[in-house]
């Protein structure tokens, strides 16, 4: 059976979502909602391929946004609930958001006081993002609870604050974490913020719950959430995963453009790490490549280089059973979450198209980027 990513209808480069895999993730989340009684919404910062949102809206309760444009996208393309959180809102942001969102979480007491009356005069439910000072993220760049974090209010800073009008707390300190990290986080929140919980209507435990990863203990997550709800039956409990929604649902298809040699054999691709998969350099991490092994594991080893002028636009060493050929397809796995949302037009390198393999097996090209897209961004 031919690899569907080698379909000649798929251009290179191209992000390709597999609809059946996305639906399987959504069905698992629907199971978690049903069994635990929590509400799950999509974090648009992790996955915003809105051509799939009709399906997303069939399973999840809405979306959460980090800025006005994301809130508009969620409102227009999913509907249902729209939540918002940002490290800081400008007055113009609030003017728009009060007409777009159902819940809004403020990062500081100062922001809440600044916009309190405007929110109270609207239909929007207000919350505060709090910092449980409980670390679970393995990478410092993605750790909201690291010492000195700008994200969230510490319990010690809430004790003397007037938070009348606040209806919820928002906590986010996980990153691709397991159910036991969720359990530990909930314990930390209950210990530090117990005095405020009885007077609230909702609590949002944020994202980072990687429930769709193979081996994740979904039953333990359900039991953990049910136990919290039994202790606090008056609270609506919300989760807002991003990665978990699109986990292992698609690829970035690329192509070998040239092969050069300098200590290693270097395969120059028609994509750029810095422009099209920046977490490879920022996190950093080594993406899996279909059919490839680690350096020296197979007969022929190549370093992958991006097609921009940035000297550091390189990915890693990969080995293959055969010599790579110019024009050969390279398939990067698991590129749907936190990848498409971070792309840029840096250096004018051709931007990957966006496509989807429908459940029936046919490929549909959703978007092909042209010169005008690059030019418009810079005007």
Output the helix-strand order.
Answer: EHEEHEHEHEHEEEHEHEHEEHHEEEEEH
Q: Tally the structural domains.
A: 2
The N- to C-terminal Cα distance equals 46 Å
Number of β-strand runs = 18
Q: What radius of gyration results from the CA coordinates?
A: 22 Å
CATH architecture of the largest domain: Alpha-Beta Barrel
Would you give the CATH topology of the largest domain? TIM Barrel
Estimated structural class = alpha/beta
Number of helices: 11
Regarding CATH, which class of the largest domain?
Answer: Alpha Beta
Mean pLDDT: 96
Give the low-confidence spans: none
CATH-wise, what's the superfamily of the largest domain?
Alanine racemase
Largest sheet: 10 strands, parallel
**Beta-strand percentage range:** 15-25%
- Helix content class: 25-40%
**Morphology call:** elongated
Describe the structure.
The protein has 379 residues and is of the alpha/beta class. It has 2 domains: 4-16 and 250-335 and 343-378, Lyase, Ornithine Decarboxylase, Chain A, domain 1 (Beta Barrel), CATH 2.40.37; 37-246, TIM Barrel (Alpha-Beta Barrel). Helix content is 27%, strand content 23%. It contains 11 helices and 18 strands. It has helices spanning 19-36, 53-59, 68-77, 91-97, 109-120, 179-193, 218-231, 243-246, 273-276, 279-282, 371-378, and strands at residues 14-18, 39-40, 42-43, 62-65, 81-86, 103-106, 125-131, 153-154, 168-170, 202-204, 236-239, 250-262, 264-269, 300-305, 314-320, 329-333, 353-357, 363-367. Strands 2, 3, 4, 5, 6, 7, 8, 9, 10 and 11 form a 10-stranded parallel sheet that branches. Strands 1, 12, 13, 14, 15, 16, 17 and 18 form an 8-stranded mixed sheet that branches. Helix 6 packs parallel to helix 7 (218-231). It starts with 13 loop residues before the first strand and ends with a helix.
